[in-house]
Amino acid sequence: MLISVQMPESAEAAHAALQTGAMPLGGGTHLMARLNDQAGGDLRLVSLRRAGLSGIDVDGATVALGAATTLADIEDDARLSYLSGCVRSIASPPVRSLATVAGNLFVPQPYGDLAAALLALDAELDVLGAEGARRDPLERVVTDGLRPGELVTCVRFTAPAKDAFRFYKASRRRLNSGSIVTVAARITIEDGLVGDVRLVLGGLARRLVRAVGAERVLLGAPLNAEVVAQAAEADVIEPFDDAYASAWYRARVYPVHLRRALLGA
User: Fold this and answer.
1) In what side-by-side order are the strands of the sheet with 56-59?
2) Over the stretch 140-196, which tens digit does the pLDDT of each residue have?
3) Is the dihedral of CA 193, 62, 264, 185 positive or negative?
4) How distant is the alpha carbon of residue 134 from its chain centre?
5) Cα–Cα distances in Å, from 127 out to 7, 29, 140, 230?
6) What are the pLDDT digits (tens) for 53-90?
7) CA–CA dist 89, 170 (Å, integer)
8) If you average pLDDT over residues 34-57, what whole number do you get?
9) CA distances in angstroms from 207 to 31, 112, 154, 161, 202, listed in the order given
């Protein structure tokens, strides 16, 4: 049962409020729906709406997204046009006007498409913890999570070179659908060969997958259908059943969607 909602005026005050066992509340698009559907014990929320954690800063190739920045803010910013396809694949415009950057990092699969994109871009998180502020790789947080009472304040990454970022999502319908397969990749081609690659998969397992096996196959190879087919078999994937697709179907169509993401065909 929800018993209180605090609205602190700064990141520090929000972090202090979380030390009582309260949960952070961004846009509430996932959390509030869960509260409506599930019974639970007493719950205290700390709203980040007034904590000064929204905003987009682009300094050359360095990008900083405030944790409470909405997906609609990203969608509307021409400087982040390489993320527009990803953001527009998430939910619907009314939901994107509420859903936040940090919130999308912690929703369960088959959601969290922006998290897949940011992981492919090797993002880092500014975190307020018991020892003060620190910076953590998003990859570590995806794997290990945060400690109780910690607060993400900002997401930072380096903007990809022109045409280096690729995103593809297969879903049951265009709006308000979880992922069947999501592919996010930062990839560069030098002299006809893959010179650098970072590949992340969503929708295929209970958490985001860094496809390091596929990366090894692609690195230094020509980007063609034969190599991509080999890359699709290079990682151990543990797909799951849900209302959107069966585990069997996810495993079956993954190679097809990887090819579409990397080759456009």
Assistant:
1) 56-59, 62-66, 151-158, 124-129, 132-137
2) 999 999 999 999 999 999 999 999 999 999 999 888 899 999 999 999 999 999 999
3) positive
4) 20
5) 19, 22, 12, 38
6) 999 999 999 999 999 999 999 999 999 999 999 999 99
7) 9
8) 84
9) 18, 9, 21, 27, 7
Token pair for residue 121? 């871009």
